[in-house]
Amino acid sequence: MSVATRADFHRPAAVGEAVRLLAEHPEAVPVAGGTDLMVAVNYRHARPEAMLDLTGLAELRDWTDEGDAVRIGSGVPYARITAELATVLPALAAAARTVGSPQIRNRGTLGGNLATASPAGDGHPPLLATGATVEIASTSGTRTVPIGEFYLGPKRSALGPGELITAVTVPKAAGPQQFLKVGTRNAMVIAVCSFALALDPDARRLGTGIGSAGPVPLTAPDAEALDLPWSSPGRFDDALAAEFGRRVAAAARPIDDVRGTADYRRHALAVCAARALRRVWTTAHDRSPR
Amino acid sequence: MPEPAKTPTPPPWAAGGVGRAPDGEAAERVPVAAPGGQPPTRGVPTGRVPGGGVGDSPIRPEAESKVNGAFDYASDLAFEGMLWGHTLRSPHPRALIRSIDTAAALALPGVAAVLTAADVPGKLHYGLIEADQPVLAPGEVNYQGEPVAVVAAETLDLARRAAELVDVAYEVLEPRCDAGEAVEAGEYFRYQPVRLGEPVTADAAVVIAREYEVGMQDQAPLGPESGVAVPTGDGGLVLHVATQWLHSDLEQIAPCLGLAPERIHLAMAGIGGAFGAREDLSVQVHMAMLALRTGRPVKMMYDRAESFLGHVHRHPARMRYEHGADQDGRLVYVKAHIVLDGGAYASTTEAVVGNAASLAVGPYKVGHVSIDAWGARTNNPPCGAMRGFGGVQTCFAYESQMDAIADALGLDPLEVRRRNALAQGDKLVNGQVVDAYDPTRAVDGQPFSPLRDLLDRFADIPVPPIPAGRDIVELPGGTGNTTHGEGVRRGVGYGVGLKNICYSEGFDDYSTARVRLELDGATGEPVAYIHTAAAEVGQGHWNLQTQIARTELGVERVVLLPNDTKAGSAGSSSASRQSYMTGGAVKAACEAVRDLWQGRDLDDGPIEATRVFRHRATKPMDPVTGQGDSHVQLALCVHRATVDVDVELGLVKVVDLTCVQDVGKALNPVALEGQIHGGSAQGLGLAVMEEIVTDGGRVRNASFTDYLIPTILDTPPMRLRIVENADPEAPYGLRGAGEPPTLSSTPAIVAAIRDATGLPLTRVPVRPEHLTVRRPS
Ligand SMILES: Cc1cc2nc3c(=O)[nH]c(=O)nc-3n(C[C@H](O)[C@H](O)[C@H](O)COP(=O)(O)OP(=O)(O)OC[C@H]3O[C@@H](n4cnc5c(N)ncnc54)[C@H](O)[C@@H]3O)c2cc1C
């Protein structure tokens, strides 16, 4: 109401113009899909005096193939990530598929997910597991931030005033990936906890990402360091998967809240991580997944 | 009802999309046309019944506007010169109000009024049964969200900002949040015992003693509370509200405003779901006070968070049950200790306690009973009417007990229910004889048992097989990709629900209908106009009225007049009663018109009749023994749930709900199926996800982000077997159908989860952590 009648609404056509407007109008709040921001406005958690609409920025609304990585414009909606990038970025595409409802996936963007920096955001675990980088623009130029340095606290990130997220660069999958999200409903649910896993059989490397089980999205370095039978994959067994699950659960720092208890989150992460490892391992070593 | 004061012409959409009055202003909408395309009848009766009558499923009169978005819900109303109202609510579950300073709010440009308890023109309290709820908190607040002040301003945002500027000095007190402690301290709205015979533990071969808990469910209607109050200029008011019972609203509003009821006209606004949430007042008195004060129309509309705080919920319950059965599984006795949490104010808690007590054993025969039921007064959110109304909580407990008996004796769950099923001539625990079936009907020389009849129909409905190669959306966790089959186990369970239909315990329950038959000036066809005050809450009641008129009068064209207080009371759209009661009233009025029509030609002038319909009288429950014929009609529903449970993650997917329900007579099969689908889904919600979580009296999930209701991926295909065992006393033999499936689906689903997991599961909603980390090893 007040937003429509009183707030200024800037509609830049290029990123350069957008960051200049943002510098000139520090009170302006960027809006992409609006699926986080407008909820906050409705609940009166936010009362923006001005808005900077990013949907007119064609540069942000597409992805490009960079060879061994995909550079995804911050304004690409989830529906397109699922539909177009599932083979090269399977974990991210699977995460995108779980976001909200079709309407939300048509509007919501990865840039918005990152800028909101909710520990429950579904985009974060796959970005952590794959080692993505975030590209940030301002009037002083462009900088890139490794995803591991992006999250600073609950709803706090490395994004500074006057800065816009322009893109996220995600390395293409070097092996099977999985994303699992636990919620108390079978669709359209905020994660109770989530887990992403990327396997690189050639580099003999695991990448992990944990969502909704700590003040920020987390990785599980101890679990990534688990000694796996890379040379004789047939020796992989349930005990190893369970140990991986335990290590992932140990890396989490969950709390009790209305969505779930800390104990349950740890338990569920252990189960999800063990399943994820079993799935990627069997896929990589060409046995039919369970 | 006396005619109201002169009222301004409502905008065409104010009636929620129903047609307009034939007299005065021209009809804005095309009257409802019957399908079938029969040639029009003329001024004399033809004896022919056109299509779209009782038993058919014509398209609803409001279907098109609801589908294309043209239907005006209460929140869509707009009037020239309208102000917006907003409510300031207490952040504390319990506090004294030391002072309220409204100066800063009033000083804000664009603010027209800021009112507190001191400004209430009439009585300070209202309530559905007892007037104990303050219009605005007078000196103390007793629950989080209790209204403290109301503001009117030029825009909604401004009204909200102004409310933030109202300075209330609270002295915060320790809230009482434990219902059991409240009962022990004597803080309760009603205590109702039921006593029958002498329950003796030693007489039973098996004794099952367990405690059960039901969380606080919300009706979660999608349309938030909303309405507009329009001053008439002579001190009177027109209120456009979305409510379940216009006349009950009026009775409560008028004394608080200090106005004679004749000065207030209530017009129904489009209702976006109710489920009991619109039985209690919400915006009504507040917007009326603001309109009287400012002399301008005032609109109020809650947002989602306020809606969760601004209406009552389903009573949470803690129940201790002890069932004794003989070797064959026949019940010897039942003891039950039932504590319902009524929250801060009475609402309908008294009536809910009566249902909980009289239906505490379900449709089973037992000679010895000791039941104690309380409705506690606490500082939790007020609880009141919700679909199932006191029948839901105990149903979860008694059905769980029946399964436990079957388990202990190695009996099939259907068999234990069959052996205990009440039959015609048997008595409920309140002493009421089951008599509402064809008295001559018997099976194998035994009196007819309506429950056994339903149970036996499952024999030829197979449990769905487990398909090969399922997509993740068909598995627990859905697109969350949590299982590809890992940890998934299937379970099957049954649940039976018994619900009283219409108002019980001696309440004078009636409905009024006026029917007028006249010739259309242009076409010469007879047109029936129906005027009632009955709320169309989405159940299809408007449609049913047109069907009844077609059947009884043999005319095709039926026009529904806007529902308002110019008509007599229709009672509430609750207790599954509106087909029975207003359906009965419309039928009676049509019959009267039909009789008058015999030997008359409509060319000589219209024919009109008004009829008041009452069901048979009921009696109050004895305060000591609970005995008394307290119910009108009993309705039964049986569910079989099939679930897949990821037992490692505790995630549940209900894969099938099969429902056998006795509806007496299917008046509109499509609407009926909708009621069963919806009721089943609401019971599913209670089984696995829906709960208002409170902590020290504070609601922690007042949003659809965290108050989860089933999505289409959570709601399984439903196979329905609709049984028509007519009730000889009810119009067309019908049995109220909206509530029973809400009772039975919850215990059926939980029984299926028990079957899959082997866990006892004594609390709903069942949460993932109940199936995993708290799992006994
Ligand atoms: C019904 C519903 C269901 C949802 N379900 C999920 C879910 O399942 N999983 C999930 O993770 N999220 C969910 N969300 C939240 C939301 O959809 C996502 O976080 C989404 O990614 C937000 O993107 P957006 O483009 O809509 O952001 P917006 O709302 O437009 O913006 C969000 C924030 O980011 C800032 N911002 C946006 N773009 C940029 C940019 N390029 N540079 C700098 N700042 C920027 C804005 O200023 C604002 O502060 C749901 C939301 C709704 C309403």
TrEMBL record, chain A:
Q: Where are the transmembrane segments?
A: none
Identify the keywords attached in UniProt to this record, alphabetized.
Answer: FAD, Flavoprotein, Oxidoreductase
Q: Which InterPro entries match?
A: CO_DH_flav_C, CO_DH_flav_C_dom_sf, Diverse_Substr_Oxidored, FAD-bd_PCMH, FAD-bd_PCMH-like_sf, FAD-bd_PCMH_sub1, FAD-bd_PCMH_sub2, Mopterin_DH_FAD-bd
Q: Where is the FAD-binding PCMH-type domain?
A: 2-175
**One of the record's GO molecular function terms:** oxidoreductase activity
User: Under what name is this protein listed?
Assistant: CO/xanthine dehydrogenase FAD-binding subunit
Q: Which organism is it from?
A: Glycomyces artemisiae
TrEMBL record, chain B:
Q: Name one GO molecular function term.
A: iron ion binding
Q: Which SUPFAM superfamilies match?
A: CO dehydrogenase molybdoprotein N-domain-like (SSF54665), Molybdenum cofactor-binding domain (SSF56003)
Pfam family name, one: Ald_Xan_dh_C
Coiled-coil segments: none
Q: Which domain of life is it from?
A: Bacteria
The record's section on Gene3D superfamilies has: Aldehyde oxidase/xanthine dehydrogenase, a/b hammerhead (3.90.1170.50), Aldehyde oxidase/xanthine dehydrogenase, molybdopterin binding domain (3.30.365.10)
Where do Low complexity bias regions lie? 39-48
Which stretches of sequence are listed as region Disordered?
A: 1-62
- InterPro entries listed in its UniProt record: Ald_Oxase/Xan_DH_a/b (IPR000674), Ald_Oxase/Xan_DH_a/b_sf (IPR036856), Ald_Oxase/xanthine_DH-like (IPR016208), AldOxase/xan_DH_MoCoBD1 (IPR008274), AldOxase/xan_DH_MoCoBD2 (IPR046867), AldOxase/xan_DH_Mopterin-bd_sf (IPR037165)
Query: Compositional bias of type Pro residues: which residue ranges?
Result: 1-13
Tell me where in this chain the Aldehyde oxidase/xanthine dehydrogenase a/b hammerhead domain is found.
68-174
**Name of protein:** Xanthine dehydrogenase molybdenum binding subunit apoprotein
Q: Which organism is it from?
A: Glycomyces artemisiae
